[in-house]
Write a sequence for this structure.
């Protein structure tokens, strides 16, 4: 996210819906733990390098940022059924045979993994 906008990370760090995370611990069935820090020098950071948030809160945060960006088209509540590669990128077709051309997309699937019910398209 820092590559998109440095302010986004700072905004999440200040958010009440996100908790800072300094690393992750994986625990095997035999009880052995593998700790993976997100940084080796926490004293050099203003805030945690990672964050934990409820999915709905983080999705809402990103959705609001996307809606405010004039370079991005947000298409919600659409069931995409077919995807194909084109000379200019990709094309998706929804259940009503509407076509969407794009070079970059982010899809959010819910309930049925065969269909994307929401997507962010960067033409």
């Amino acid at each position: 996210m820092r590559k998109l906008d440095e302010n986004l990370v700072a905004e999440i760090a200040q958010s009440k819906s996100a908790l800072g995370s300094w690393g992750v611990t994986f625990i095997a069935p035999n009880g052995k733990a593998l700790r993976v820090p997100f940084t080796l020098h926490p004293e050099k950071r203003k805030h945690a390098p990672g964050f934990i948030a409820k999915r709905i809160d983080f999705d809402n945060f990103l959705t609001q940022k996307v809606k405010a960006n004039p370079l991005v088209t947000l298409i919600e509540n659409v069931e995409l059924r077919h995807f194909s590669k084109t000379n200019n990128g990709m094309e998706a077709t929804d259940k009503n045979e509407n076509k969407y051309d794009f070079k970059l997309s982010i899809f959010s699937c819910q309930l049925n993994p065969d269909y994307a019910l929401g997507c962010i398209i960067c033409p």
Observations:
- The chain is about 20% helix and 45% strand.
- The radius of gyration is 19 Å.
- Residues 73-122 form one domain.
- The chain has two domains: 6-67, 73-122.
